[in-house]
Specification:
Layout lengths: L4 H19 L16 E4 L2 E4 L9 H12 L8 H6 L11 H14 L3 E3 L4 H12 L4 E3 L8 H4 L5
Parallel strand pairs: 3-4
Antiparallel strand pairs: 1-2
């Protein structure tokens, strides 16, 4: 399944922006486009990648997956649990890259990892855990997960 439309749109905009900068590197005014209009967002004086519009996973889908898995697994945690236990002043609450690294480490160390197909993020953790013989599954492999729910989980 292809990437979502807004994710792909912002990726194309960023690639176009960078290509334009390289193309005009020898000119006094290299930037002909505004970064904010091309897949970047300014936060605290720094540019950060704008990955997509809206929520990455709709809350209804997230809650449905957690509900299904919680019936079979005694201790299940998600990224929301990480955020809930961080101090409000923590840089992790605003730095998506650092939060992603923390989530990857937690998933890597967990007793069991459940990832989604077609996700480089999930595949990285899956491969590391498989190399060590640690239990890892794709969401669509689990019994009881509706096919339409598992097939909608691509990032």
């Amino acid at each position: 399944m292809p990437a979502c439309k807004t994710f792909l749109l912002y990726k194309i905009k960023r690639a176009n922006f960078v290509a334009s900068m390289w193309k005009n590197a020898n000119l006094p005014e290299r930037c002909r486009f505004q970064p904010e209009d091309n897949g970047w967002v300014m936060q605290d004086g720094l540019y950060h990648i704008k990955w997509f519009e809206g929520e990455q996973v709709p809350q209804s889908v997230h809650q449905a997956i957690i509900g299904i898995l919680a019936k079979r697994i005694t201790q299940i945690f998600s990224g929301n649990d990480v955020i809930r236990n961080l101090p409000a002043s923590s840089a992790l609450t605003t730095d998506e890259y650092m939060m992603s690294l923390l989530e990857q480490e937690i998933c890597y160390r967990s007793a069991v990892f459940i990832g989604v197909d077609y996700s480089n993020w999930s595949d990285f953790i899956f491969d590391e855990r498989q190399a060590e013989g640690r239990p890892s599954y794709h969401l669509n492999e689990l019994p009881g997960v509706p096919e339409e729910l598992a097939s909608s989980m691509y990032f």
